[in-house]
Please model this.
Amino acid sequence: MLYGILALVVIALLAVDLLVVHKNPHAVTVREAATWTAIWVGVSIAFGLLVPFVHEGAPGSSPMAEYFTGYVIEKSLSVDNVFLFLLIFSVLAVPKELQHRVLFYGVVGAIVMRTILIFTGVALIDRFEWLMFVFGAFLIYAGVKTFLQRETHPDISHSPIYQRINKMLPTTDGYQGDRFFVREGGRLLATPLAVVLILVEFTDLIFAMDSIPAIFAITRDPFIVLTSNVFAILGLRALYFLLAGVADRLRYLKTGLAIILVYVGVKLFVENIEGIFHPSPLQSLAVITIVLTVTVVASLRAEPLAEGETPAGIGPFGPSADRTEKQEPEASATDA
Model:
């Protein structure tokens, strides 16, 4: 019953976003993105305040503190995800007015994938307790790797997944409006927008491998893990458009994310070891908030990046340039 109500709430929020707020494709401004980021954060906080009234949790647990800690972890780690979206959109020259459409369906796919991963993870941990040590070690490794690679960025155009998609999926030469598939000469072809969507979904799947185990360091309650993930992801689109305008100032953010990954990895690794101090969800929330605050403040106080310098290891991205579309007879292109 509780999960059914949650599903209805999420569907309603997504419907409002797609059918009302962004009914007509347009380039989202920083002001609009800031407004909707504030709205999504407000909705997430409101839900967190209601958590103790709708979900009791395990004896001795603190569902509200666990929810907010999980939400902050997921939100902070999703920033790295946003930066990679920026790189994908820039390299593949996605028109600004189409970016929200890609992110909307990307969010829907992310919610479905993470729901499956979360319940699978909970079931595996309940059966194989030693997996907590594996997750902890993996997060520590991911944190160290993030720090060491903070000044590098992936080459999207030469990545194996991008090359494989291009080989397996026949595509048009240019974008066809907001369509993912079109029919040309009797053949069903994917547009570059479909390729971008696949890359976005694949990117989120990779990042979920970090963020979901990180929340297991706070709680194993599937309802808290799921809701903290879902509400953080719902605001991902607005956060993307907001950070797109200030990404060049967040030069130290990857260092902060690396610290957070190592912290939650260590916490998860020692969680079941007797005689070792185990931080509470509130203490973890304080640590993560302090790390993020120091990182952001230090970034904003630093000198602006020189032209051509890569911000926070993201790569040379900027406002996406409109890709020149191949001119095809309109009669030959129909919605799939």
Observations:
- Residues 307-336 have pLDDT under 50 and may be disordered.
- Residues 254 and 294 are 12 Å apart (CA to CA).
- The first helix runs from residue 2 to 21.
